[in-house]
Specification:
Layout lengths: L3 H47 L8 H26 L1
């Protein structure tokens, strides 16, 4: 019985294992290098959500509300100043 095919199979499996292990290590390194860029895109999407109107809960809606109140207060102040003259 010739065991050479079994030895060749074991060598090929060993080589395949080494290559796959190296590839997995490289992929893990690549993932760690690219991870900060994925969080940046998440941050950008959160900022975009805050700058678009969404029924009063976004930053943009709050700024509009403050602007409306300032205009109203300014108008009221002008009216009061005109009546005091």
């Amino acid at each position: 019985m010739d065991i050479q095919p079994v030895v060749d199979l074991i060598k090929n499996l060993n080589t395949s294992y080494v290559v796959l292990t190296g590839l997995a290590g490289y992929m893990a390194l690549l993932y760690r290098k690219l991870k900060p860029y994925t969080t940046i895109t998440d941050d950008i999407s959160q900022i975009r959500a805050e700058l678009t109107s969404n029924s009063g809960k976004s930053l943009k809606d709050l700024v509009k509300k403050i602007e409306t109140e300032v205009k109203s207060n300014t108008s009221l102040t002008k009216t009061i100043m005109c009546r005091q003259r």
